[in-house]
Amino acid sequence: MTEAPIRVGLMGLGRSGWNIHAAGLAELDQYQVVAAADPDPDRRTEAETRFGCTSYTDPEAFLANADVELAIVATPSHTHVPLGLAALAAGKHVVVEKPLAQTAAEVDTLTAAAEKAGRVLTCFQNNRFEPTFLAIRDVIDSGRLGELVLIRRAIHRYARRADWQTLRKFGGGELPNTASHFLDQLLLLIDDGPIELLADLRRTVSAGDAEDHAKLVLKPKSGPLVDLESSNVVAMPQPAWFVAGTTGTLTSTTDGLHVKWYDPTSVDELQPAEGAAPGRAYGTGEHIDWHEETITPEPATGKRTLLYYEHLARTIRHGADLYVTPDSVRRQIDIIERARQQTGLL
C-alpha cells in the first residue's frame, strides 16, 4: 500500500474548515492540502499562502481537480448532502462536517452513493475522541457504577447568537449544529434498539427562526434514561456530565470527574420487612464502604481532530475499519429528525 500523503481538498474555509480541519491537517504528515474552495477571495489567498494549494470559487471546478483524493465538506449545513453527493460522484473519498444530513433518508442516499462509487464516506464526529468522554467510557466499562440508571449531559451557556446558524433555511439550529456532537457521544453509551423520545426545541434569546435551546430525553428499551440539554439561555451552567448507577455515581466538577462507588459484594442482600418500621424510622442503617476518586482528563484540544484524521488515514491507505461509519451517525440524525417533527421545527 502507498504511503504517499492523502491529497486533500477543503470545501469551505470558515470557522470549522479553517480553524479545525485545515489546522489539524497541517500537523499531519499523512495529508497534503492540494485544493481549497471558498467564495471569499481573502480566505482563498490565505489557503494558497499556507498550503501552496490551488483555490476555487465554486465547487464544480474544485471537484474537477483530479489531484483531490479526499474532499472535506465544511460548508453551511444545508449544503452538506448535495456537496457530499457531488464529491462522491466525482470519485472522491468524503468527510462531511456534522450534521451529516438533515434526515435519515438523506443519510441513506449518501451511503448508497458511497457504496456505488466505492469510496469512503464519513462524518466529522471528532468528539468521539474527546478526553473527558473517553475517561467516562472507561469508568462505565470498569463496572464501578453498576447498572446505569441515568446519564445526563448539559451544555449550558448564555449567548445571543445572530449568525447563519440561527436560520433554518441554512440548516441552522442548536440541535444539528451543536448538540449533535453530544448526542453522538450519548448514543455510544447505550444499546442499539428502539428509543422513545421527548423533545423540547425553542428559540429563546437568539435571532432568526431556529432553536437555540434543545432538550431531549431518550428512553431506550433497556438501560439508562438519557437526558441532554444544549442551550444558549442558561446563565448558571450545571455540571456537564452526571451518570448514576446502582453502585456509584460520576459527576463532572471544576477539578475533573468525581467518581463515588462501592463494591456490591461488601454489603448483605436486602430482604423486605413487612411489619412496622423499628423506631418509626425508615432505612436500614447499614454502613456502606464508599470509594472516591477524582479523574483529571487532558484538556479538550485539537488532539481529537488529529486522532480522527489519523484513524481515517489508516482506513483510506490500509483498509482499516472506518471509525465513524455513516450507519452509526444515521441513528443520531434519526433522533434529530424525530425531535424536529415532534416540535414542528422541520
Automatic annotation (TrEMBL):
This is Gfo/Idh/MocA family oxidoreductase. Pfam families: GFO_IDH_MocA, GFO_IDH_MocA_C3. GO terms for molecular function: nucleotide binding. It comes from the Bacteria. InterPro entries: Gfo/Idh/MocA-like_OxRdtase_N (IPR000683), Gfo/Idh/MocA_oxidoreduct (IPR051317), GFO_IDH_MocA-like_dom (IPR055170), NAD(P)-bd_dom_sf (IPR036291). Residues 6-122 form the Gfo/Idh/MocA-like oxidoreductase N-terminal domain. Gene3D superfamilies: Dihydrodipicolinate Reductase, domain 2, NAD(P)-binding Rossmann-like Domain. Residues 133-250 form the GFO/IDH/MocA-like oxidoreductase domain.
